[in-house]
Amino acid sequence: MSFNSIEFAIFLPIVFIAYWLLKNKNLRYQNILLLIASYVFYGWWDLRLLSLLIILSVSNYLIGIYINKNEIDRKRKNWMIAGLVINLGVLVIFKYFNFFIDSFIDLLSLAGYNLPRSTTKIILPVGISFYVFLSLSYILDIYKRTLNADKNIIEVLLSLGFFPIILAGPIQRPSTLIPQISQKREFNYDQTFDGLGQILWGLFVKVVIADNLALYADDFFHNYSNYSGSTLLLGAVFYTIQIYADFSGYSNMAIGVAKLFGFSLMRNFAYPYFSRDITEFWKRWHISLTTWFRDYLFLPLSFAVSWKIKGSKVFYIKTDLFIYIVASTVTWFLTGLWHGANYTYILWGMIHGLLLIVYHIQRNPRKKLFKKIGITNDHLVIRIFETIITLFVVIIAWIFFRADNISIAIKYLSNMFSSSLFTYPTIFPVDLIVIILLFIMTEWISREKLHPFQFDSNKKLNIVLRPVLISIVIWAIILWGAFKNKEFIYFHF
Question: Helix, strand or coil for residue 464?
Fold first, then answer.
């Protein structure tokens, strides 16, 4: 079941009404209802995939209890390792098995050994990368003693399968979700209307912006050899906006849906394309994933590497810089791999890792240069220039992310940076571009808010402005909405 489907439009009101009718009953009944609803929501795709989610969730529930009750460090570590093996094993088998086998066969072919490729393809469970990371954070937090294992199996299963986040996040860690599940929720009108507004905005950017852009971006990337460089540049820009609108739209809808049931989820996007450098971009883009890799991989790896180094330099590189390079390289390799079993995703991750390393290296020399020539870091020209450069390199990286393989990405770039780059685009949908510009303008005006429909109910202007803007967005959804129940991009990750 998808947020942009008719089924969900029927499912959500039924669950919402039943949930709040149970408000004066036992909290346990509300949680059981949400768990059943979550499993119905996920099982709508495939009941076989639902069984995998349930088995994995129950396993993590039991492992968490065994880690928690053992005081002996060796036994705690053994159970933690068992949890890692089970969760990562499931992820590798279902998501990367075919990729690793094909890569191994390709490697052998270079040595002259030609092996037949298997025609058996393992089904990729939707959202597996997200719920495996939820499970990993639950196990690791218990092991680190920052979270006590919850003995209430309903609460644990719900935290690992809550339907707003199960398919594509945000990756709301159980350590922050379980306390909300275990406490009584009260119906709040302001929170409910804010949630509805966030859902509406998310639906708008998905079906009006992302899905309409997909029609052009897909064509440009599939038929890149038939278009001019200027058209391919437009295609790269279209995909850049499409993936943002698609994923941020889902995140806004997920957060909004959770608000309807009294839950507060972490923010996942903070207008990332307005970032002035690559580090700021990754503080604003897919925040739940970035912070997950930071806390569970980058920082522990940096600490582990630092313990192995005794001198002030390694290979003539300062120790702190060497640690950053190693930790960043590993983190961004795995970040790319997390997105999918394709070399394009790995290369995309490595590009961003390299950009972050370069930014880290030049940060101090840049400060000294600015000080020497008397330019402040907040100079308007500097801010605009850096924002444009950051957006440009992000767009280039997205080409590798979107292309079917690295060869196509290189050909796409080669055709784009040709003499035809300076010609008028072959296809230039004026009406869609106007809508995009209005969308960008709205995001810029709302950049201090959590989402554009976040209103202050105490301000008289907002009382008038809210229904006007809501009416415009609903009208736009009806008029321009690409009602094809197109899947969200991140369902594949």
Answer: helix
Tell me whether residue 379 is one of the annotated catalytic residues. no
Helices 27-43 and 6-21 pack at an angle, to 10 degrees, of 170
Q: Tell me the one-letter amino acid at 100.
A: F
Percentage of the chain beyond pLDDT 70 is 95
**Cβ atoms 224, 191 nearer than 8 A:** no
CB 172 within 8 A of CB 162: yes
Q: What share of the chain is helix, strand, coil (3-state, %, to 5)?
A: 75, 0, 25
Residues 267 and 287: beta-carbon distance below 8 Å: yes
* Backbone phi, psi, residue 359, to 5°: -60, -40
Helix (H) or strand (E) holding 318: strand 317-318
Q: Using an 8 Å Cβ cutoff, are 63 and 85 in contact?
A: no
How far apart CA 240 and CA 210 sit, in angstroms, is 10
26's torsion region: left (phi>0), alpha (psi -120 to 50) or beta? beta
Entry field: residues in the chain: 493
- For residue 121, pLDDT beyond 80: no
**Can you read off the two tokens belonging to residue 345?**
């995703």
DSSP 490: G
- Report the chain's mean pLDDT, rounded to a whole number: 90
Confidence of residue 146 (pLDDT cuts 50, 70, 90): very high
What residue has token string 């890792």? 353
Catalytic residue among 222, 286, 339, 352: 339
- The interaxial angle of helices 153-161 and 174-181, nearest 10 deg, is 130
Distance from chain centroid for Cα 116: 36
- Of the candidates 198, 196, 195, the residue with the CA atom closest to the CA atom of residue 252: 198
Q: Cα(385)–Cα(390) distance, rounded to whole angstroms?
A: 9
pLDDT score for 309? 83
pLDDT in tens, 271-323: 999 999 999 999 999 999 999 999 999 999 999 998 888 777 777 888 899 99
Q: Contact at 8 Å (CB) between 249 and 203?
A: yes
Q: How crowded is residue 486: how many other Cβ atoms within 10 Å of its Cβ?
A: 16
- Residue 228: φ, ψ to 5°: -75, 165
Are 157 and 61 spatial neighbours (Cβ–Cβ below 8 Å)? yes
